[in-house]
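Checklist before submission:
- one chain only
- standard amino acids only
- sequence pasted in full

Submission:
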Amino acid sequence: MKAITRFTMNSILVMFFLTLFYSCNKESSITDPAAVSPGYSALQSQINAIPPAALSETELNNLKWMREEEKLARDVYLALYAKWRITVFNNIASSEQSHMDALLLLLKKYDIADPASPVAGVFNNPDLQALYYQLVENGSISIAKAYETGATIEDLDLLDLKNAMLVNDNEDIRLVYESLMKGSRNHLRSFYKNLLNAGFTYQAVYITQPELEAIIISAMETGF
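Returned file contents:
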């Protein structure tokens, strides 16, 4: 799913300096994913217990896209935390790292080269690179816009995961996608709550409005 709009030269310069600021914030800095997420080890065991199955080209491409899209979420939240110093962005960035780690398990299992750059704010997929600039620019306008940006990211993530599930028939991939969807729903609930507390609201952009409403009225979910 592509959601690209124009961004200004000023925004590019802002992103350039943010990228420099976070250039040493590499994925390898988290050496033990299980220490970050207690559910990681259990998920890893479940993935390893499922025999590998042949991947279609669509399934392979979706795995690579989702790996970078979860990185997109993490990197935007790190940038917004640097801008606003609001804890929710740092906390959810850590959760997105766990999502990246889960997808990396699948990439390694199927011997797929990792498309994710180790440098924050840098993407191999040009659409995601442009989207990163757009999202950080929007989230840097105000705190309310930052919350809106977070909700938009999770909104998009949920749609992309749902679409990827529709064309996937591998049990281990489905297991990870379902876990990621739980996390995205929880993140969307958090950003929506923060928007309400700030006197704003959020309308669905990617998933349907009824889907959004069903999420925000339901309880936080447990799991990876």
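Reviewer check: The two ends are 24 Å apart (CA to CA).
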